[in-house]
Amino acid sequence: MTRHNTAAGAKTRAGRKSLRLHGTIARDLGMQIVSGRHQPGDILYGEVDASDRFQVSRTAYREAVRILAAKGLVEVRPKVGTKVNPPEHWHMLDPDVLSWIFEGEPSDQLVESLFELRRIVEPEAAALAAQRRTDAQLGAMAAALEEMSKHTLAVEEGRRADREFHAALLHATANPFVISLVSGVTAAVTWTTIFKQRHGLLSRDPLPDHVRVYEAVRDRDEQAARQAMTTLLDLALLDATGRRRSRKKSATG
After folding, report:
1. Domains observed in the chain
2. Global confidence as pTM
3. Is the pLDDT of residue 3 over 60?
4. Cα(231)–Cα(177) distance, rounded to whole angstroms?
5. I need a labelling partner for 153 at 20 to 30 A (CA). Which of 23, 39, 141, 209 fits?
């Protein structure tokens, strides 16, 4: 190997390490923001202080702040610093932001709000999918159901299949604006499932609910698809919040 290739390889490895580092810093700061440890209006560390505090380069910290700014969590103001934004500025459906929220302990109100959004979007998406789906999209949904049945939602393979089912459904709407919600909706699907699993709320098998959505889309029955998806979401919300409330009540009673 030539000296040039060796230097290039070292530079590439350093670049990858830097990428991982600023992603880690962004995650740590992001979780502190969404958990309320850093409140709206707070000014985060300056580059010099942050470099000393985290034992990282100023460049790595600067890149981490850029990630947070792109997600709406902070705003960088000249002569002021990096200011934490209020939640209404956050890109709440960003997969990273959702993961940071659910890696902590979101309130029932926040969980309910997420399901409220899904209830606005997904039943109508299911109805559109029943009108417009292609055989290939229907096949993707069927394959996802088979994988969900094989693996269950308790493992990553099953959760991946669940994401693929909901993604195929949204793609089947043939509406580019609905399709643009795929990453956010599938992240919501995954993180609410992980959240339920963490709290021991994954005892009910949701596969039959998904099968009913699939069958309605397959049969091109718009109303049945809309109702099946509504029922799926209502039961999932009950799993995520209703049972947790019951456990809290039992613990305090």
Report:
1. 3-89 (1.10.10.10), 95-252 (1.20.120.530)
2. 0.84
3. no
4. 24
5. 23
